[in-house]
Design a protein that fits this description.
This protein is an alpha+beta fold. The protein has two domains: about 5-55, RNA-binding S4 domain (Structural Genomics Hypothetical 15.5 Kd Protein In mrcA-pckA Intergenic Region, Chain A, Roll); about 65-235, Pseudouridine synthase. The protein has six helices and 17 strands. The protein has helices spanning about 5-15, 20-25, 120-125, 145-155, 190-195, 230-235; strands at about 5, 30, 35, 45, 50-55, 55, 65-70, 100, 110-115, 135-140, 160, 165, 170, 175-180, 200-210, 210-215, 225. The strands form four sheets. Strands 7, 8, 9, 10, 13, 14, 15, 16 and 17 form a nine-stranded mixed β-sheet that branches. A four-stranded antiparallel β-sheet has the order 3-2-5-6, with no helix packed on it. It has a two-stranded antiparallel sheet with strand order 1-4. Helix 1 packs across helix 2 (about 20-25). It is elongated. The N and C termini lie far apart (about 50 Å).
């Protein structure tokens, strides 16, 4: 691993602002291989050298990838003056400057959300041309889950304003509950698909992105790092060209 400035390492691995990093360094809280270092311009290789902050080792990662089980009432944004944001749910040991949600769930939706500071990764996750399947569980206010509606979703649903969705998979689970798989990210797409067919979505929960399902042991509001295997699984079900379903 290449050497990195200590002020950048503190920002990356400990989520400190530049001014907080400077204060920590000035106070003697940072050591490199046992030597106290007070200059932020000093470089170290965290893959080879032991860098401690307040006696605790700093683990440097170029990028961070987090899985969150988003609860109700929280917005998928980095900042909002009126509502709590998903960044406020990230535990301090996992927080770093530059984190953002890769894709969104609206304030009234719950479930799987990925956060990262890797722009290229986020683009791969949300780009429409990647056709990455996203699976939602929905609860409706009216029993509209008929074979005819399954066929309507399979053809693509007219959303109003000249906009039509791509083909989607609708799987009824009960009279008022269903699973929906879509391959794009049109604004409020799942809600609008049902709106156009006489039902309101009263609950919406994302349970899968690509080949990765939401961890059932992760509580609402919970957040943890993705494993290397989970990162690979995200893109395992990429569909190069979703076709109209029979």
């Amino acid at each position: 691993m290449a050497e990195i400035r200590l002020d950048k390492l503190l920002s990356n691995a400990a989520g400190l602002s530049r001014s907080d990093a400077k204060r920590k360094l000035s106070s003697g809280a940072v050591t490199v291989d046992g030597e106290t270092v007070k200059s932020g311009s000093r470089k170290a290789d965290p893959g080879v050298q032991r860098v401690l902050l307040d006696g605790r080792p700093l683990l440097y990662r170029e990028h961070l990838y987090l899985l969150m089980n988003k609860p109700l009432g929280v917005v998928s944004s980095t900042d909002d003056p009126r509502s709590p944001t998903v960044l406020g749910l990230v535990p301090a040991p996992l927080f770093r400057r530059g984190l953002f949600p890769a894709g969104r769930l609206d304030k009234y939706s719950t479930g799987m959300l990925i956060l990262t500071d890797d722009g290229d990764f986020a683009h791969r996750l949300v780009a429409p041309r990647k056709h990455l399947p996203k699976v939602y569980e929905v609860t409706l206010d009216a029993p509209v889950l008929t074979p005819a509606l399954v066929g309507e979703f399979a053809k693509g649903v007219y959303l109003g304003g000249g906009e039509r969705s791509s083909p989607a998979l609708l799987e009824p689970l009960s009279a008022l509950r269903a699973r929906v798989t879509i391959y794009e990210g049109i604004y409020h797409q799942v809600r609008r698909m049902f709106d156009q067919n006489g039902a309101k979505v009263t609950a919406l929960r994302r349970v899968r992105i690509g080949g990765l399902a939401l961890d059932p042991s992760l509580p609402e509001g919970g957040c943890r790092e993705l494993t290397d295997g989970e990162l690979r699984a995200l893109f395992a079900l990429q569909n190069p060209e979703p076709e109209e379903m029979p």
